[in-house]
Design a protein that fits this description.
heterodimer; A: alpha+beta; Rossmann fold; Alpha-Beta Plaits; 5 domains; 15 helices; 34% strand; B: alpha/beta; binds S-adenosylmethionine
């Protein structure tokens, strides 16, 4: 495909029946990005090179962690049985925190490749992604990847697919994205089996916005699937959500970089530059119309709700401004992060940020640290709790400091509720006992127990989200030698006997260390925290009493006796000037400490405590 | 070399008039030892072929140059103390001590009260006659590096003397300088228990004269001890045990009439070390010899300087020959640095810091200088005392002086 003399690619010749929009969904590491590279090479969207490694994963964190965070898309031109096709691959993130992104990408597709690793078989996200696609009513093509591996068992995996998804084992394609085996069957299968988009080029323009990002030069760029009609530079279109009017200043396709086109038509997927200034104007799921023909909007998305909240504070308070700037910049491109200012007596000024999940939080932190050189402390995550009052009002709590005290609970609160999830856990059968014990100890209720084959088990549990966002995943991996996979979806709210646990240093509560937890766990967690804190604090001139309390009740206590001796044995002459240098360093260090209840707590101690390094 | 032109108005307060009559001290460093101790990072060298003559000539040359440079040859400023330290000064020839003391007597105002200390290692070869000869040429205080009376500890430390030679040296010295002998002991050895230490102390207190330095073994970088500790070959007493040892040492010495007048120093019958306490009080001192450092006021401007000598003996001697002094750096002490130094050193002593002295030296009201909040919390915690005349640490405060000053300083 060559650009025309005007410099823009001409797409007018592609009628709707020559277009296929599809995605790839897979559990992490099953080969989605590798397969995408192969397909783009096959269609000459990118040159075949040795080092085409995950061209669609643009962020450093994506490459490092091997996960796709942002949805991306890429267009391909492909000739099949003498006919030219325009194929749009819409890449989806491969992690449960981003299921929301998966569904928004799926909404722009008519088909998807369900990719399963031939050695690992079905994993938790395979199941979750399958149901997301199933719910969107699109064509699902099962593909078994990595058949080149010595440990590959494609037939067994095909049988699992039949058990879990009721899709005939014989429909599965068996490929190796790495060695290119059978990859050439994929695009023909898509063309044969995935229906073309159903739009009508002769109707007025209508499009679905499914992703957007911010570009420093042109502002917001929107990815849209055009449903009906055509659109070109200079056209005026209207957002159904805001009723705001925009003039189209550029249209194009991702090929794989932004490549302008003379127009976009029904069935095609491409980007729009609309002179939008901020991401808050672009609502994923929004429908755009020709400004003279405003019709019925498409069923929109429910915006992603942040389910994990945490306080973020600069380690050095002098970095506040800089960090404020960095967070603003990062959230410019990730509108799913909710941002509020927060002030902590222990940690100073900071923010309370809402994330889709803990991985989302980790990725955000990593990006702050990598791309913006930030030095930060993140508090323990809190899920949004719901307080229902007797008078019928209710309140959502995102920060333990907002949790009502005992008096308020007794006087006014009807129920305290916590968010629940339905989780899918898949693992080799030998770990069944351990994993059931784990789920039980995390207050889980079993919903389903299926044998995918003679040795692999699928469990579904209903669990409090709070139990899942702490170290559940790590525990799961630990108890299954790394073999268990896990995914979850939100599942409403349940009443729960929740309490706020405070950490108290020499009778002063440390706000940044309070957490909300189930009454039954307070004592165990309290004892653990108090002990760990004792290990992280250094002896000081006074005795330190570290306590955990719930309400007025002390549930755990440790004492750190006063420093008895800290004095250089010998100090004279040139040593004095060396000592003065040390002293000045020590004083600098003290400046970066927070005095709580007269106890000096270094930022490093906070950091180590939060990150559970010690 | 940096020169003294920086303007430091704050310190000029101790005007040249006051400087003219202030006493000063002299430190002379002998940089050679017969072997290296495992814990020691002092500026010392093991050299079987020491050029004694050249060393003596260089020391004299430097002494004269520096006395003149700082106008200390005007006889207006009395010498408070002279200290021959090391290294192992007892390896130097008596003629060296004699020529230096004669020079000082010639050029400056030395008196009966001038304290003249010599630091020595116990040795089986030093005779009473040698000691008497040293007394004749002017040495009037003797400081003996015993370190321990336990053979296995001495071995562990890499010392080349025995408990019995230490005992004999001590007895001989006490006979020659009754009431003016000090000895050093180190506590906190690997494997040492509280009762081991108490036994060592009780034994020591039976034989000691009127002054004792009891040092907690410090792990200094670049020493064999440091390496062994870092590699985990040696485990030293932990915070609790070391604190118990420190507390025991204060209690036991007090029982026999010793006053704990500085973190590591104890005196009976007011036999304080004039030299060291001068240092804590902010009194000027000249540093002579390889690696020595000094703290002296410019006689004209009243600005305070720290001096640093070349450390390696050959290089130091070369520069002495060429330029008359082995000083490689003279740097003005910032007013704030001096204030902090007085506080850091003062809070290590039971006398603490006299408010009038602090004002006289710095022009600053000490109580206004210290961090108010910290002063108050340390007062109420019983770590510090304040009277109209002075600020001083309690016994408990002195034990945590490093932590204390880190809070008290602004
Ligand atoms: N042996 C083999 N390895 C593969 C194949 N496809 C992908 N991989 C490897 O599997 C890992 C994960 O692949 P990636 O494409 O990043 O997976 P994604 O997380 O689903 O995007 C990488 O190390 C790939 O090189 C395959 O067909 N065979
Ligand atoms: C500088 S040394 C020189 C004296 C003499 N050469 C000797 O070893 O006896 C003076 C004293 O400092 C003490 N000292 C040296 N290094 C030490 C260390 N690392 N820890 C504790 N005390 C130390 C010893 O008690 C020693 O007697
Ligand atoms: S402790 Fe004394 S004898 Fe031992 S090396 Fe150091 S200066 Fe020399
Ligand atoms: Mg990937």
């Amino acid at each position: 495909m060559k650009p025309s003399s005007s410099g823009a690619v001409e797409l007018e010749s592609f009628s709707v029946d020559q277009i296929r929009n599809f995605s790839i969904i897979a559990h992490v590491d099953h080969g989605k990005s590798t397969l995408a590279d192969r397909l783009l090479e096959l269609a000459h969207t990118i040159n075949k090179r040795k080092d085409n490694k995950q061209v669609l994963d643009k962020l450093k964190v994506e490459r490092e962690r091997g996960i796709t965070v942002k949805a991306q898309s890429a267009s391909m031109f492909y000739e099949y049985k003498g006919k030219k096709y325009l194929l749009n691959l819409i890449d989806t993130p491969g992690h449960m925190d981003f299921n929301f992104e998966v569904s928004r990408s799926l909404a722009a597709c008519q088909g998807t490749l369900l990719l399963v690793d031939a050695a690992q078989g079905i994993q938790a996200q395979t199941v979750a992604n399958f149901y997301l696609a199933y719910g969107q009513d699109i064509t699902i093509i099962p593909v078994i990847n990595k058949i080149d591996l010595p440990a590959a068992e494609p037939d067994r995996v095909a049988a699992q697919i039949e058990v879990a998804f009721e899709m005939p084992a014989s429909d599965c394609l068996q490929i190796s994205a790495k060695s290119n085996m059978n990859v050439d069957q994929i695009l023909p299968t898509i063309i044969e089996n995935v229906p073309p988009p159903s739009g009508d080029i002769n109707k007025p323009f209508k499009a679905l916005l499914f992703d957007s990002w911010h570009d420093t030069y042109v502002g917001v760029i929107c990815l849209m699937a055009v449903i009906d009609g055509t659109v070109k530079k200079g056209d005026k279109i209207v957002s159904a959500h805001s009723e705001r009017r925009y003039e189209v200043s550029e249209t194009g396709i991702m090929y794989p970089e932004q490549t302008p086109t003379s127009s976009l038509q029904a069935g095609q997927v491409g980007y729009f530059v609309l002179n939008m200034k901020t991401l808050s104007e672009s609502h994923v799921g929004d429908t755009f119309f020709d400004h003279k023909h405003i019709g019925l909007p498409m069923p929109g998305f429910i915006p992603a709700k942040p389910m994990v909240w945490a306080g973020i504070f600069p380690i050095d308070t002098a970095d506040f401004e800089k960090l404020d700037h960095s967070i603003a910049k990062l959230t410019l491109n990730d509108s799913s992060v909710a941002v509020q200012k927060e002030t902590s007596t222990a940690l100073g000024q900071g923010w309370r940020l809402g994330f889709l999940g803990t991985l989302h939080m980790d990725v955000f932190r990593q990006r702050l640290e990598q791309e913006y050189d930030a030095n930060i402390i993140i508090t323990a995550p809190t899920v949004p709790y719901k307080i229902e009052y007797r008078d019928g009002t209710s309140k959502l709590i995102r920060n333990p400091t907002e949790f009502p005290d005992m008096d308020e609970i007794n006087a006014r609160v009807k129920t305290v509720q916590e968010p629940m999830v339905r989780s899918t856990i898949i693992f080799p059968q030998e770990y069944l006992g351990d994993i059931m014990v784990l789920c039980g100890s995390r207050r889980g209720v079993q919903l389903e127990h299926t044998y995918l084959d003679e040795s692999r088990v699928l469990l579904k549990y209903r669990l409090p989200l709070a139990e899942v966002v702490t170290d559940f995943h790590d525990e799961l991996k630990g108890r299954s030698s790394g073999f268990a996979s896990f995914d979850y979806e939100e599942d409403g709210y349940d009443d729960a006997d929740l309490v706020k646990m405070n950490i108290v240093l020499n009778s002063k509560p440390v706000d940044a260390l309070s957490i909300i937890l189930h009454r039954s766990q307070a004592e165990v967690v309290g004892r653990d925290w108090v002990k760990r804190l004792k290990g992280l604090l250094s002896r000081q001139l006074f005795e330190i009493v570290i306590q955990a309390s719930v309400g007025n009740k002390i549930i755990a206590r440790e004492g750190l006796s006063a420093l008895r001796k800290n004095v250089t044995a010998k100090c004279y002459g040139g040593d004095v000037s060396r000592k003065m240098k040390l002293l000045n360093k020590q004083k600098e260090g003290k400046k970066r400490m927070k005095a709580i209840g007269g106890v000096e707590v270094s930022q490093e101690a906070f950091y180590d405590f939060m990150s559970k390094k010690k | 070399m940096q020169t003294g032109s920086q303007a430091l108005s704050g310190l000029r307060r101790l005007s040249s008039i006051a400087t003219k009559s202030e006493p000063f001290s002299v430190y002379i460093h002998w940089p050679y030892c017969s072997s290296k101790c495992t814990y020691c990072n002092f500026n010392k060298y093991v050299d079987p072929l020491v050029d004694h003559e050249r060393m003596q000539a260089s020391l004299l040359r430097e002494l004269k140059t520096e006395l003149k440079h700082w106008n200390l040859d005007q006889r207006s400023r009395p010498i408070r103390s002279i200290y021959f330290g090391g290294g192992t000064p007892s390896l130097a020839k008596p003629a060296m001590f004699q020529s230096i003391l004669e020079t000082l007597d010639d050029m400056c105002n030395m008196s009966q009260d001038t304290e003249i200390t010599m630091e020595v290692n116990p040795s089986s070869t030093t005779s009473v006659e040698t000691l008497k000869a040293l007394r004749e040429i002017g040495i009037n205080r003797y400081s003996l590096g015993v370190q321990s009376f336990q053979a296995h500890i001495l071995k562990e430390l890499g010392r080349d003397h025995t408990p019995s030679s230490a005992l004999r040296s001590l007895r001989d010295a006490r006979a020659v300088w009754p009431g003016r002998v000090s000895m050093d002991l180190i506590m906190g050895h690997a494997g040492q228990t509280l009762s081991d230490w108490i036994k060592e102390l009780r034994f020591t207190l039976d034989v000691v004269d009127d002054h004792l330095s009891l040092y907690h073994l410090t792990v200094e970088r670049g020493t064999a001890l440091h390496r062994d500790v870092a590699q985990g070959k040696i485990l030293l007493p932990d915070h609790e045990l070391a604190s118990d040892m420190y507390d025991a040492m204060i209690e036991i010495t007090e029982d026999v009439g010793f006053e704990h007048y500085e973190v590591s120093n104890f005196a009976r019958n007011r036999a304080y070390s004039l030299h060291n306490s001068g240092h804590w009080l902010g009194i000027d001192y000249l540093g002579i010899g390889p690696g020595a450092h000094g703290r002296v006021r410019d006689p004209i401007t009243g600005d305070l300087f720290r001096t640093f000598n070349i450390r390696d003996p050959a290089g130091w001697m070369r520069q002495c020959t060429e330029q008359g002094t082995g000083c490689r750096r003279r740097v003005a002490i910032e007013p704030d640095e001096f204030k902090q130094e007085l506080i850091v050193l003062g809070m290590r002593t039971s006398r603490g810091i006299e408010l009038s002295r602090f004002y006289q030296l710095t022009g600053q009201d000490l109580m206004k200088y210290l961090n108010k909040e910290a002063t108050e919390s340390c007062l109420s915690a019983g770590l510090l005392r304040v009277t109209p005349a002075k600020v001083y640490p309690t016994e408990r405060g002195m034990a945590v002086a490093d932590e204390l000053v880190a809070r008290l300083l602004p």
